[in-house]
Amino acid sequence: MERRMKTNRGREPDIVMSTDPRDYEVLIGNRAWIKKNNLEITDEMDAALTAQERQGQTAVLVAIGGVLVGMIAIADTVKPEASHVIQILKGMGLEVVLLTGDNKITAETIAAQSKSGWTEMG
């Protein structure tokens, strides 16, 4: 049995996909991963990703069968005591940095939310 996949914009991909789940190619990843897999990120999609990152969320795209079909925003919350703990560590003469695998926009937003005074992020 086969069916055509529709995106959230009503467009159909150029291929017919099987309903057998072993036949689907699903990609989930950030901008770099999606581009590395030769999928185009439109300006509208890029703006949506950036909007989520400015809220401190990690945004990833989802593609099925070579068609971008969605975005997932993942968020961690800054613990209420984070700022206090960081200030204690700084008071002990320690240099405190925010080390993250997130992109720069998300890292800067988290640093600002924590009110920790982080100036160095990696």
From TrEMBL:
Keywords: ATP-binding, Copper, Copper transport, Ion transport, Membrane, Metal-binding, Nucleotide-binding, Translocase, Transmembrane, Transmembrane helix, Transport. It holds the Pfam family Hydrolase. GO terms for molecular function: ATP binding; copper ion binding; P-type divalent copper transporter activity; P-type monovalent copper transporter activity. The keyword Transmembrane helix applies. This is P-type Cu(+) transporter. GO terms for biological process: copper ion homeostasis; copper ion import. The keyword Manganese does not apply. Its EC number is 7.2.2.8. The lineage of its organism: Eukaryota, Metazoa, Echinodermata, Eleutherozoa, Echinozoa. GO terms for cellular component: plasma membrane; trans-Golgi network. Its main location: membrane. SUPFAM superfamilies: HAD-like, Metal cation-transporting ATPase, ATP-binding domain N. It comes from Stichopus japonicus. It is a multi-pass membrane protein. It is found in: Endomembrane system.
